[in-house]
## 1
Amino acid sequence: MKKKALSLLLSTAMVASLAACGNETTPATTDTQTADNTTATEAPATEAPATTDAETPAAAEDFTLETLNIVVDGTLTATVENGQDAFKEQWEAAVSEKLGHQITLNINQLDHSDYSGTVSRLLTTGQPGDPDYPDALIMSATMLRQYQTTGLLWDMADAYANAEFQSRVTLPSVNENMKDNQGHLYGFAPTYGNGCVTYVKKSWLDAAGMSIDDIKTFDDYYAMLKAFHEKESGTYGVIAAGYGKLDEAPYINYMPEFWQGAYPSFYQKDGVWVDGFQEQATIDALARLAQGYADGVIDPDTEEAGTKQAREKFFSNDQSTSEGVFTYWAGTWLRTLTTNMEKQEVDNDLGDDRLVQLAPIQEIKDTWGGYINREAPVWVITDDQDGSNAREQAIFDALLETMLDGDKVQTLWTYGAEDVHWSTKAESFTTNADDPEKKKDYEYADGEFHLKQAPNDPNSVWKKNHLDPVLVIAPLTNGFVDNDELVQVGNKFFTENCVDAPAAASCDTLTENEATLVELKTTLMNQAVTGEITPEEAIAQYQAEVGDLAQQIVDELNAQ
C-alpha cells in the first residue's frame, strides 16, 4: 500500500512540476523562502499505524542513532559552496556531546525548483535504512497535509509534548494548530511562517510626486501603478512570480492588492469549507488583474516569472525596463532587496531608504484584516512502521530537540558555523574595499557577537542559516542577536500588519486530484488575465470541467 501511495505521489508531483514550469520555490522563513516551497502532490490516504494500548513504545535509549540523513531545500543557506562542511562538523561535535555518542550528519540539499517531485522519488525508491533514504526532511504545510495520511510520517505528538524546549516555547499555537482532529502531530515547525509585504521604490514615488502614506485604497494603489508605468517607456507598475501562486499556500500573497478578499482554493468560511475559486470574489480579482494587464501596469513577465526572475528584474541596474512595486517576503528580505539594489547601483543616494513598505490597503483590511502570515514549513520524521518508536524518538532527540536548545546547536541552525559565518572574536573587515562609494568598514570588539563576511561573497555580510531568530518559537538564550536595524524594521512592520492564513485543506479526494486542479486553475487564471477569456468564462469552464469534483471535496471536508 505504501509503494502504491508513493507511486501516485510521484506521478502527480511530476504533473504539478510541469504545470509550474519556470516558477521557483518560495524562500522560507526566509529566503524562501523561502521558501515554500513546493508543487502540489497527491496520494491516496492510508491510515497511519497507531500504537495500541497493548504496545509499549521503545525509548530512544534502546536505539543508537549513529547516522542522521536529512533532506533540505534552499532554506538551509549554509550550502556546500559557502560553509556547509563547517556547519556539519560543528553540529556533529555539539550533538555528539549532548547524546553521549558519535553521530554523523548527512545533508542532501535538493534543487528548489522540483523539491516536492524529488522528495516523492526518494520516498518511492527507498525505505528506512537505505543510505539515501531521509530520516527527516523539510516539507511545506501543503506537503505535510498530503503526506500525513500515508503512514510515511511519524506521529511526534508525545515527543513534542515532552521536549525539553517546551519550557521556552513562546508561540505554542504554531504547532498545536498543526495537530489533526485526533491529536496526531506529523510535522514540527521551529518558526512561524512569515509572509509577504509590498515594497515600493522611494525614488519612483518621489518622481511621481507621491507619498507612501497617501496609498490607502486600491484606487490609490492602482493610480500609483499607472504613474509608474507612465514614468517612461518600458517600465511597469508591478511584477510578481505569477498572477497567483495556485500551487503554493497562501496563493494570493504575491499580488495581495489585486486579490483582496479572494482565496482561490478550498478554505473555511464562517466554519464551513468552501471552494474559493468559484466565489464572486475570485471573479472580481481576475477582473482587476485583467484590467491591470490591459493597462500595462502589470509586467507581462509575471505570467512565467519565478521568484528569482521577478526579484532580479525588480532590482536590476536597468531600471528603464523595471517596476516600482514588488510584493515579497518580510523582514530579512527588506535587507536583501536593499543590498541587491546597492550592488546594482540603484538609488545609491537613498542608502537604506531605497524601499518603503506599504501598509495593507483598506480593501485588504476589510476582508482578511492584513497581510497573510502563511502556515510554517515543517520538519517531518519518516516512520519505519516496525511497531517501535525507538528509531524515530532518537531522530527527534538528535535533530529537533537540539535544534531549539537555546544555545550552541540552535545558534548553528540560526547563524551557521562559528568563525565561518559568525564570531565573537575581535575583528575588523571591509566590504567593497575597491569601490569608494560602496566601501563599508566593520569593527567588533572581543566578545561581541557579529556576522562575518559571507564565505562566497566577501562584499556581503552573512545573514542567517536556517532559522530566522525573530520568527523562532523558542528564542536563543545566549544573547546572540543580529542587530541589523533594517531587518528589525521589516519584521516589526509585518507582525503589526499580518493575520494568520487559513488552514490548508486536506482530504483524500483533494490529495488525489490537487495537481489536476492546480493545473486547470492556473491555465484559466492566465487566460482570464491576458484577455483570452473573461473571468466569468474562466469560472464557468472550471465548474463545467471539475465542478462535481470540487463539490465532492467540499462535502468531504465538511464531513470530517
## 2
Amino acid sequence: MTMWTSLDPADVTVEPGARTSARLRVRNTGDTVEEYRLSLVGKPSGWSRVEPDVLRLYPGSEGTAEISFAPPRSSDVEAGPLAYGVRVDPRENPGARDVLEGRLTVTPFTETRAEVLPPALFGRFRGRARIAVDNLGNTPLTASLVVRDEANRLTFDVRPNAVQIAPGRAAFGELVVRPQAVRWTGAEEQHRFTVAVRRAGDDTALDLDATFDQRPVFGNWLVVVGGLLLTAVIAFVVLWFNFSPKIVSAAKEIRASGAPRPAPQGDGDELPQAPPPSEGGGGPTPGGPTPGGPPPLADGGPPPADGGGDQGGGPADGGGGAENPGAPTEGGTDPGNGGAQPPAPPATAKTLPPWRQGDARDLVVEYAQERLAALDNACDLKPGWTRGVIDAQTKASLVCYQRTVYNDGIQNGRNSAALYETDAEGTLGRATLTSLWSQGIRVDQVKYGSTTWQTTQLMAAFWWAYNREFDDHDLQVGRLNAQYGIDHFRNNTSKTSKYNDNVLAHIKDYQRAVGLPATGTVDGETLKKLVGGSVM
C-alpha cells in the first residue's frame, strides 16, 4: 500500500432538503509524489459531491476532502439507510486503489395534497366526484377519506374510504352525494360539505371544501308551461260550453223542419301542393376535398411563424366560459370562423369519446375546430364550418392533421406516431385531443415555478392521455379545458397555470406510462410522445 485512508464519520444522518458532510483523510505512505482522484459511488452520488476531487501529496504528507450530502425534499429520495462508497484512485500506482464504505440515513418526511374533482357538483337526485390524493413524501401513505356536511342534509358514499399510496404516486376515491329530501319545485339550493383526508397516525386532517347544487325536479320553466297549458284547457272548456247550446239548437231545428242539409260549396279549384322540404337544412355547404401535401406540424420545437395561435395575448384570468363549460356559444359572428354560424342540430350531449361525424354538438369538438383553424398550414380549417359538430369540412381538416402527424412521426421521427393506435381516422378521440392540446408547446415555456398558458395546455393534454373511462361529470373537466382553449384562440384570452409540484407529479406519471425516464421535467422526448398521441 502507498496510502492510508480514513472516513470520519462513517455513518451520518440527514433530513431531505438539508445538508450534512463527512471528512475523508488520505496520507501518502510511499516515497514519490502521488496524485489521488476521489469519486463517489452508490445511490447518494446523484446529490452528493467531494471537494476537492483530486489530492496531490508529497511522501509522508496528508490531505483531507469534504464529502457533502444534500438530498432534495422529494419523493424520489427514499427514507432509510443508504450505502455509499468513496473511491480513491492513485495515479502512479493504480493497483493500490481503495474504496471506503459509509452509510447515510435519510430521515422520513410527509407531505400530502388532495383535491375534489370537480369541487362544485350539481344534480337533482345525486352528484358524482373523484377525490384525488397525492403522496409527495418519501414514505408510504395510508389515508382515510371522511365526508360530512354541517346541516346534515346530505348522504355520502365513498369508495374506497381508505387509500394506500406509495411515495410519489396518487390514488383516487369515488364520491357519490345524495340529498336526503327531493326538491320538486323552486330554485336551486346549495349544500356545502367537507372532505377530510386524514393520514394514519396523525390527528390533523386536510379539509377540502366542496358544494352540491340541488336542482328541482320540475324547474321554473315547467311550472310556467304547466300554467299556460292549464289556462288553455280552462279557456277551451269555457268556449265549448258557451257554443255547445247553439250547435244543439241548430241541429234540432234542421231535424224538425225535415229540410235537406245544405251541401258545402267550393270554387272548384284543387288544393295546392305542399312545398318540398329544404335540402340544405340551413347548414353550410360541405367543404372541398381533403388538402394534400401539408408541411410538417410542430412537435415541441419552435412554433409556426405566427405562433399557431398559441401565444396568449389576453389577461391571465382565463376569460369567460369557466362558469358553464358544457354550454357552447350560439350563433353570432365568430372571428375565427369567418362570419355568422348556422345553428347546429339539437341532440343529447355525448358522454364518451370519440366524436364522429353526425354526433351531437359538443364544446370539445368546438375547441378542436378552433385549434385546427389556427394551424396556419395546409390542414387548417377554412371558414364555413358548423360550430361544435364534425361536419364534412371539419372531418377533412381532421383527417389531414392526423395523416400529417402520423407521417411526420414515421418518416422523420419527430413524434411517436401513435394516433392510430386508439383513434380511427376522421374521428376525434383521446389521442387526437392529446396531440392538438400539446401542439406549439416549447421546452423553454414549461419550467418549474413558471405561470404560463402552455402549462394549461400541458395539463389539458395529460387529462385526455390519462382518462380511459368517462361519464357526464368526468367530461365536465374536459369541456372546461375546451372553453379555455376556445377563449384563447377566439378571444385572445389565456388561462394561465403554475408549474408546481402537482404538475411535476403528473409529468412523472405520464413519463412512466409511456416508457420515458420519470424526471418530472418536460423535455423534447415527452413532447414527442404527446404530439404523437401516446396515451395510457
